[in-house]
Design goal:
The chain is an alpha/beta fold. The protein is about 35% helix and about 20% strand. It is an enzyme of class 2 (transferase).
């Protein structure tokens, strides 16, 4: 497809359910004020776990978006997706009806699916036998159900898909939706990521892999990307959703436009199940290819929302990748990890971080990296420590990297 054939794609709606706020405005204000959403786990008794902290969504009521009977037949990850999607549609003043339903699609990524349902049903199976398992177990558990149920509850009948690329899933979903509109396969796409994996088994699994922080006595300072005293990531949960539209379609209905999406790239390290390739070659290529796709030079980039997990393997590798992709300009770019406030939403992280990136462009404000008290000497870029910053943001990248070697970069710029 040549650039002349590509449709232009803009962001017209945003929705968020996060550990620091359950609406777009609460989330954005939380980011700018450096609000910390990490605390002791309350969703289950974590007293026997080595990791007892997480970024939990607080005060979320699914009945604000769903009938009680419907909500009961969904896992939390699907509830989050529907809530954030309905927020994004309302934010865009977008109506899905009989005339346009087949031109509105959905791509929502996640990493694990209905982990809580699976664990609960396993307990029922072991204690009460196979005949007592719920008939809704499978449709509540499978990862694609966030996208499928969101379609049911919004009426979108266009392309519908689920991306499962670990912690890159939310960003892959946004990128895939972008491509569908670019290619003329849809006029609008609901896209992003969702996750609700703060469960006994998944917390135990990540702890066994020595991937998560065990700073249980000080959860507010546990997630500290690019800091030499970091000891692992902190799990989070929630959903971030964007409504993307073909530009002419958005203009025809007088939509407000937050930003234009201009680039997308994905690469693979082909190196290791959980560790990035040393030096960050795969991440470097993702950024370079996203900029090439967008027709951008490194010198045009103002802000990077980093994957920034608060792990030694990621933070140093991503820093090196940014330097390799941007050259000397890397030291002039604002880079921040919003995971320092929300924790790591796994497959949902790319969704809320794309929302943050778009809001940075729309408001010329860069969220901070909190808890960056003792910078790692190998992490020497401008990570916007402690406090948000007012500065022109004309072009922004959002990075997501996942187990399996998945690397994704999204590129956005101010709409002109």
């Amino acid at each position: 497809m040549t650039s002349l054939e590509r449709k232009r794609v803009v962001v017209t709606g945003l929705g968020a359910v996060t550990p620091i706020g359950n609406t777009l405005q609460e989330y954005w204000y939380g980011l700018l004020s450096g609000r910390n959403g990490i605390g002791p786990i309350t969703l289950f008794d974590a007293s026997s776990h080595s990791c007892r902290i997480a970024g939990e969504v607080k005060g979320f009521d699914p009945h604000d978006y769903l009938e009680k009977k419907e909500a009961k037949r969904m896992d939390r990850f699907a509830q989050f997706a529907i809530a954030a999607s309905k927020q994004a549609i309302a934010d865009a003043s977008f109506e899905i009806n009989e005339l346009n339903a087949e031109q509105v699609g959905i791509v929502i990524g996640n990493g694990i699916g209905g982990m809580k349902v699976m664990e609960d049903q396993q307990t029922i199976y072991l204690n009460r036998g196979p005949d007592r398992c719920s008939p809704f177990m499978v449709p509540m558990m499978i990862a694609n159900m966030a996208a499928g149920l969101t379609a049911i509850h919004t009426g979108a009948k266009g392309p519908n898909s689920c991306v499962v690329t670990a912690c890159a899933a939310g960003s892959n979903a946004v990128g895939d939706a972008f491509r569908l509109i670019q290619g003329g396969y849809a006029q609008a796409m609901i896209c992003g990521g969702t996750e609700a994996a703060v469960t006994p088994l998944s917390v135990a699994g990540f702890a066994a892999a020595r991937a998560v922080s065990t700073r249980n006595d000080d959860p507010l300072h546990a997630c500290r990307p690019f800091d030499r005293d970091r000891d692992g990531f902190v799990m989070g949960e929630g959903a971030g959703i964007l409504l993307l539209e073909e530009l002419e379609h958005a203009l025809a209905r007088g939509a407000k436009i937050y930003a234009e999406m201009v680039g997308y790239a994905m690469t693979c390290d082909a190196y290791h199940m959980t560790s990035p390739v040393p030096g960050g070659a795969g991440a470097t290529r993702a950024m370079l290819l996203a900029m090439k796709d967008a027709g951008l030079s490194p010198e045009q980039v103002s802000y990077i929302n980093a994957h920034g997990t608060s792990t030694a393997a990621n933070d140093k590798t991503e820093t090196n990748a940014i330097k390799n992709a941007l050259g000397d300009h890397a030291y002039k770019v604002a880079v921040s990890s919003t995971k320092s406030m929300t924790g790591h939403l796994l497959g949902g992280s790319g969704g809320i971080e794309a929302v943050a990136t778009v809001m940075a462009l729309a408001n010329d404000k860069v969220p901070p990296t909190i808890n960056l008290e003792n910078p790692d000497p190998e992490c020497d870029l401008d990570y916007v420590p402690h406090h948000s910053r007012d500065c022109p943001v004309n072009v922004a990248l959002s990075n997501s990297f996942g187990f399996g070697g998945h690397n994704v970069t999204l590129a956005f710029k101010k709409y002109q």
